[in-house]
Amino acid sequence: MNTRLGLNEDRIQRARSLAEEIAHPVRSYIERHTTVSVERATLRLFGLDGCDEEGTPTANLALHQLRDKVPHGAARYLLGALVKTGMTVEELDRAVAEGFDLAAQGLPDQGALEAKAAELVARVRHTLDTNREYRLQKIDQHREREHSPLLYVIVATGNIYEDVKQARAVVYQGADIVAVIRTTAQSLLDYVPHGATTEGFGGTYATRENFRIMRKALDEAGEKVGRYIRLVNYASGLCMPEIAALGALERLDMMLNDSMYGILFRDINMYRTLVDQHFSRMVSAYADIVINTGEDNYLTTSDAYEKGYTVLASELINERLAFDAGMPSRLQGLGHAFEMDPAIENGFLYELAQAALIREVFPSCPLKYMPPTKHMTGNIFAGYALNTLFNLVARMTGQEIILLGMLTEAIHTPFMQDRFLAIQNALYVFKNAASLGEDISFRENGIIRRRAAEVLDKTVEFLEIVAGKGIFESINQGLFADIKRSPSGGKGFDGVYEKAPDYWNPWENMLKEALFKGGKK
Amino acid sequence: MNTRLGLNEDRIQRARSLAEEIAHPVRSYIERHTTVSVERATLRLFGLDGCDEEGTPTANLALHQLRDKVPHGAARYLLGALVKTGMTVEELDRAVAEGFDLAAQGLPDQGALEAKAAELVARVRHTLDTNREYRLQKIDQHREREHSPLLYVIVATGNIYEDVKQARAVVYQGADIVAVIRTTAQSLLDYVPHGATTEGFGGTYATRENFRIMRKALDEAGEKVGRYIRLVNYASGLCMPEIAALGALERLDMMLNDSMYGILFRDINMYRTLVDQHFSRMVSAYADIVINTGEDNYLTTSDAYEKGYTVLASELINERLAFDAGMPSRLQGLGHAFEMDPAIENGFLYELAQAALIREVFPSCPLKYMPPTKHMTGNIFAGYALNTLFNLVARMTGQEIILLGMLTEAIHTPFMQDRFLAIQNALYVFKNAASLGEDISFRENGIIRRRAAEVLDKTVEFLEIVAGKGIFESINQGLFADIKRSPSGGKGFDGVYEKAPDYWNPWENMLKEALFKGGKK
Amino acid sequence: MNALKPYGDTLNDGRMQLSFTLPVPCSPRAREAALQYLRKVGLTDPQVVYSEALDEGFTFFVVYATSDAVIDYDTVKGAEKIEYMSFDEINEFIKEKIGRKIVVVGACTGFDAHTVGIDAIMNMKGYNHHFGLERYPMVEAYNLGAQVPNEALLDFAREVSADAVLVSQVVTQKDVHIDNLTELVELFEAENLRDRTILIAGGPRISDRLAMELGYDTGFGPGTYAEHVATFIVRKMAERGIS
Amino acid sequence: MNALKPYGDTLNDGRMQLSFTLPVPCSPRAREAALQYLRKVGLTDPQVVYSEALDEGFTFFVVYATSDAVIDYDTVKGAEKIEYMSFDEINEFIKEKIGRKIVVVGACTGFDAHTVGIDAIMNMKGYNHHFGLERYPMVEAYNLGAQVPNEALLDFAREVSADAVLVSQVVTQKDVHIDNLTELVELFEAENLRDRTILIAGGPRISDRLAMELGYDTGFGPGTYAEHVATFIVRKMAERGIS
Ligand code: B12
Ligand code: B12
Ligand SMILES: Cc1ncc(COP(=O)(O)O)c(C=O)c1O
Ligand SMILES: Cc1ncc(COP(=O)(O)O)c(C=O)c1O
After folding, report:
1. For range C179-188, the mean pLDDT
2. Under a CB-based contact definition with an 8 Å cutoff, are residues A157 and A166 in contact?
3. Helix, coil or strand: residue A255
């Protein structure tokens, strides 16, 4: 390991084994449970992704019908109906939209179900595999034109067609990654809206059609400039697994996906979140989609200097849970952020220490580094200076993915010109200070090294406490982000089900097979 | 010596001895010559600083009368007239303005002249001493509120009263130093204008009255915020020595003053410049005024990466000539600049190397670091980012004086808000990255160290050539800034005179006594 | 009468900096369009100091221009400076002038989840070393947190007989805050609670003027501390003779 | 007809960024004045997103506002894109269409000492890897440098029978460049040289339009290279049938 910070390797190992200890009961809980959204995701993977006249998705209509049968897995009813009626999935989807009852027919024998499942899984698997290969090939082809860190910008007009214009412009300007921010509170919707949308607040609805529209636009714009442009959305909120599934189908490349974000910041039930998170990650892992965890969010509510260790602690938990879902490090875009008060003396050094620390603890993760947001003000010039130093830290510490700070962060979702200025700033700093990180070393016992050691120590201390209490109780007591969430509280708890002994989910089986038993080609 | 860059001490010594070699013939030329402006400065120091109805200064009127007598020194005629007529200097000044002929009376005996000289020198010396002490006391009193580097801003409205408003605002905002930029081409005027002025282009006339007005305003504003605000002007151009004298009298604190700027950038004759420069520096040294040399100017015409060594070479010559004029290192504000093309890969590292190199070669000079100007464009945001990194280098390398970059550098002389944003940027960076310089070290054999060594080597090479050819011939051949100036060309050569054997200048004598024989209290 | 114009570096020079994007390809024609546009807006002597393509169909401009418009500063209303009471003064004032604890309920309403602002005003620890309302001995403060439906806020306010209700709105895209704030006032009016409740809105894009236009008693923007809000509430209560 | 308005993040939203200073103390009243001022200018929905005291008597504002003004882009004149000739094409063109070397004299006039710009156009090495006129085999170029009095430039131009005279003006404070440029044109006219000489002005604040208004054949601003100027000269000469 690279020891630029002179970190104590034992402490890092201790932290990791604490994370493992913390994850253990989570893992066994997950094993034993499913949720309505995992089931809907399963149905959608089989192709049930239309909607009725009111816009209610067929996946939701189906789950409504099957609400008593969830412990057994919804898949067998869909497959059963297909076998019994002889319809294609597309036909059945339309039928459900018109009121067709999946459970009405009864079930065929398990052999027939297995055969149907195998057929459909194989077909969709082919799509996922093709997507994965296409992406790998394109990235490979254009690798030398990518930036380091990759430039990540958001579009958030609320209107997918306007978003497309904005996205085209950033591709022209040099961005590598485009994230379509979701409308406020989509995380609280227990369904995924349908179709192209033009009305969102502070973001645009995540829908399959919107994914498609943006994917196409980015592919086209990328071809023009000879780069592969990555598309990002949110596998987060009450529909986490479904969005992961839709993203995999429509070749998204990254997904915001965190094990605790929804619990803490959206008051979604903790069990629901953890089960959903596991399934989502298996889907994303299979589809070779990078996840972005949400540790930056801790620092928008808590003080970044005081609570720097909560970021590292949460990353270790996210890492562990990602491994548990079969996701390799190279897909774990662990998040962190540059959020200290710019008025702090030597704050730049602390930011540098934090970013370098996280780099060293996770040497093979594509870290996602978030820009200053909380301390951005209406003084767009001061904000631009702040972003300049943020870009410098990103480059110096070898981050992989950098979400570009907007000078208008405190004012509005980005204007087209705001993103341009952000990209210009980053390109300037990356080139002008290209080798700065390697050309200097941190003084022994200096401020930077001491700060990194301190954060690591505090992380271990904190994880000891969490491991002692258990993660569920720790969240209950408000140990994370000063926010208390009770185990049975929050949204979506009624959508969590204990699996019956005969629970059957061909997609889960396939994913496990592929991810854990080397079945992935 | 601090060896952060691992510099070769021998090379530095070699460079210094080459500078000494180069300065040698200059010194002997200076010893043997005077100029009209040295004489006018002498008269002004004695108090002849009025003007006639057309605004022609009495110092110029006097020199016109005495044009044939310059080799003997103008002072004796002024003193003679005072002795003969019994007038006070103030009365004589008015008389000259009305046509009184200084030489008409003939001269009294040398004893009477010496006595009169002693009386007047003592009186004015008292003023200079009081100024010096006042400044030292104020700086001492408020030291902990000063910034490091000192924040230096310019005002340049062309109107002294408007300049005052701007200056008050920057004091409020935190600036430590205010420079009143001169109107275009004042350097080419062979007289110092008189009175308060409101009409200048790109700057405000340097006049004694303007000095007074601004001095008073800064003292008042400084008292209010509890800081001593330094005032800067230009002892440069055809009236270099006179402005140095007026600045000393009006308690200016810094003076732009360079041994070659006028020659190269204003096409002023080289002999004239070098003689003027020497006298000016003696005056400034006596008055404890810091000079700012103009090496930044090389980089506005030549490429900063290619010609970085010319800056160091010129600084070594400026240093030598300053020592020759009795000026200690602590008053030598040697200039350098952050002027590399921001599009250069690793340009930030080269700037860092250059700034650290100059810091190490001149450990006890109050270095003056100039901001990006040439590569500033109408994109004020990009400019603000550039200034952010400039501020960072300034702080990291421990510069003493930093002229703040303006985001509108490519557009107009600064608006009030431009300076505010510049000060905010600097204060942010200085505090947020306060200890960065000390907390890191430059990798052995890294880009930064190699660049510093390379610039030092090239400087030695270059000085070898200049020493070989002699400085006059080197300038003639265009070795500095790619600009060729012939020894007898340029403005003001007709104002240079060989001293007669009986040349007598009581001020020169006093200054030499004070500066070289420990006569300064 | 005091004629007011922007100040660049000389009184009344009227200079302003602008930046904006036009949806046309970057070209001499686009630059000419930018100049004509600014003249149409009424600015004189516009100078495009920077223009660059944002892509094939959009151009970004940085411009300096002169505005000849003048307003009479003497007729501009607004406080030169507002005198706020301190933590102690406020508690003292409540004791003396109102004679009982006052009840304040706050929430971030609608789908807005930005609680940092309302927390800054209400939570114990406050913000920037200014204590929040929970710390005031004479204030009974209830912070309902994020994403609170307007109906729930109303119900709670009625239940605790709130003297003042604080509403935070941070997301303003498509004027969602206007709709939300308006709905709340209408609810209070429909339930005949408007008159006995001081309604205060706050958030980074909220101004005194906007809040009053929407039917609130006042509004607070960036840089607000608890004592600002409390000063307003207690003075208003005293003024209305509430006790 | 093509209605044009600024673009923030949605077509025709008209959003613009402004910053400026008002010579009044920072206060709620100053912020109100800023809003009223912008409405007076004709902008709607102005939002002061930042205001700060520059000292006791001045306040700095950053504002976003909407402009409802519209111009018709179809009526805006100006090149979509100008096709310039290359180094080789220009020399070839001169050989073919003019049949002799052309004579170009350049200077930075008045008290202006900013030679970098004119040097960029004229000197051998040129600028940004674009050769200067001295390098063109078919151009006889004279660069008189800095601080050249208008009379001296005229005399020299007459002496060498200049086909084109290039004037650089960089300092623009108090419109000193306008006075300088105007004087030169008047001198050329007084000496009856105007018609036989192509007069071109250049500098960071010079535009085509400004130069033409002052009586020049054209003007060039930032980002100019020698081939741009040369293209203009040779086309103009050919057009006028000069040879
Ligand atoms: C922190 C933050 C978050 C956190 C919120 C955590 C939390 N628990 O609050 C998280 C990460 C969850 C978040 C999420 C989102 N955010 Co957000 N977020 C911010 C951020 C960075 C800082 C806000 C903040 O905390 N400021 C500090 C506080 C102290 O300031 P303040 O809110 O202005 O409050 C002060 C005053 O206004 C006043 N005040 C405020 N409320 C009240 C109420 C009363 C009664 C009174 C008297 C005073 C008062 O007093 C306070 C103290 O002085 C801003 C950008 C920025 N720098 O402002 C974006 C920002 C507000 N977010 C934005 C958006 C769009 C979102 C999302 C919708 C994005 C998305 N689609 O996912 C989501 C969804 C959130 C939702 N549903 O509401 C936009 C809003 C754009 C707009 N104008 O509409 C902003 C401006 C960022 C941007 N440029 O895009 N966000
Ligand atoms: C370098 C420089 C200097 C150098 C000049 C050295 C030299 N030999 O030229 C020095 C240090 C001597 C200097 C001094 C001063 N300067 Co100066 N300087 C600059 C600076 C930093 C860069 C100018 C430059 O070289 N640009 C690069 C060239 C390539 O660009 P350009 O000139 O725009 O030229 C291009 C085009 O415009 C065009 N072009 C230009 N001329 C022509 C002519 C023709 C015919 C054509 C076709 C095209 C053309 O083609 C060129 C290539 O594309 C600018 C700030 C800036 N970043 O722009 C200030 C600036 C121009 N200076 C300024 C001032 C005020 C001064 C002083 C008056 C300050 C003072 N009072 O002491 C002095 C005095 C100079 C004088 N008497 O003229 C101001 C002018 C403000 C204004 N708008 O009026 C500026 C803008 C700085 C500022 N913000 O205050 N300066
Ligand atoms: C993991 C994660 N999910 C979701 C979001 C977005 O918020 P919302 O809950 O409104 O979708 C974020 C924002 O940072 C996030 O980090
Ligand atoms: C030493 C010196 N003198 C004078 C000046 C100012 O120029 P001018 O010659 O117009 O006074 C400068 C500008 O940088 C300078 O460095």
Report:
1. 96
2. yes
3. strand
What is the C-alpha to C-alpha distance for residues A262 and A185, in angstroms, rounded to an integer?
Answer: 11
- What tokens appear for B88 in the block? 């006070």
- B233: Cβ below 6 Å to ligand 4? no
In chain A, % of residues over pLDDT 70 = 99
Say yes or no for a CB contact (<8 Å) between D54 and B172. yes
Quick check: pTM over 0.90? yes
- Whose CA is closest to A138, among A210, A244, A225? A225
Instruction: State which ligand 3 atom lies nearest to the alpha carbon of A292.
Output: 1
pLDDT tens digits for range D139-187? 999 999 988 999 999 999 999 999 999 999 999 988 899 999 999 999 9
∠ CA B268-B270-B272, rounded to 5°: 75
Nearest CA to ligand 2 atom 32: D117
Give the closest of A377, A381, A415 to D15, CB-based. Answer: A415
Mean pLDDT over B502-508 rounds to: 98
B161 touches chain C (CB under 8 A): no
Instruction: Please give the Cα distance from D83 to A252 (Å, whole number).
Output: 42
Task: Show the tokens assigned to B338.
Answer: 């952050």
Atom of ligand 1 nearest to the CA of C223: 53
Q: What confidence tier does A520 reach under pLDDT thresholds 50, 70, 90?
A: very low
- C-beta atoms of B168 and D20 within 8 A: no
* Structural contact between residues C199 and C216, judged by C-beta atoms closer than 8 angstroms: yes
Look up residue C15 and give its two tokens.
């200079």
Q: Is B6 exposed, middle or buried (0-12, 13-18, 19+ CB in 10 A)?
A: middle
Interchain pair C50, B162: CB under 8 A = no
- CA nearest neighbour of A268 among A234, A313, A302: A234
Partners of residue D18 on adjacent β-strands:
C18, D63
Asked if residue B187 has its Cβ within 6 Å of ligand 4, the reply is yes
Q: What is the dihedral of CA B372, B377, B378, B382, to 10 degrees?
A: -70
Determine the Cα–Cα distance for residues A200 and A187; give it in Å rounded to an integer.
13
Q: Name the residue of D114, D116, D173, D218 whose CB sits within 8 Å of the most ligand 2 atoms, as the mutation to test its pocket.
A: D114
How far is the centre of ligand 3, averaged over its atoms, from the C-alpha of B361 (Å)? 53
The backbone torsions φ and ψ at residue A356, rounded to the nearest 5 degrees and listed phi first, read: -70, -40
DSSP summary character for residue D97: I
**Is the CB of residue A183 less than 8 Å from the CB of residue A205?**
yes
| Cα R_g (chain A), whole angstroms | 23
pLDDT of res. A184: 83
* DSSP 8-state symbol, A48: -
CB A273 within 8 A of CB A260: yes
Tokens for B266?
């204003």
CB C143 within 8 A of CB C107: yes
Q: Encode pLDDT of B439-456 as tens digits.
A: 999 999 999 999 999 999
Any CB–CB contact under 8 A between B415 and chain C?
yes
pLDDT in tens, A431-443: 999 999 999 999 9
Q: Is D50's CB within 8 Å of A162's CB? A: no
Average pLDDT score over chain B: 96
CA separation for the pair D200, A379 (Å, rounded)? 41
How many CB atoms within 10 Å of residue C17?
Answer: 24
Domains of chain C are 3-72 (3.30.30.60), 87-240 (3.40.50.280)
Domain boundaries, chain B: 32-123+492-516, 147-234
Residue A201: pLDDT band with limits 50, 70, 90: confident
Q: Is D101 a catalytic residue?
A: no
Which protein residues touch ligand 3 with a CB less than 6 Å away?
Answer: A 182, 184, 186-187, 234, 236-237, 256, 258, 261, 266, 294, 297
Q: What's the rounded Cα separation, in Å, for the pair A434 and B350?
A: 11
State the sign of the Cα–Cα–Cα–Cα dihedral B108, B110, B116, B117.
positive
Is residue D30 within 8 A of residue A437, CB to CB? The reply is no
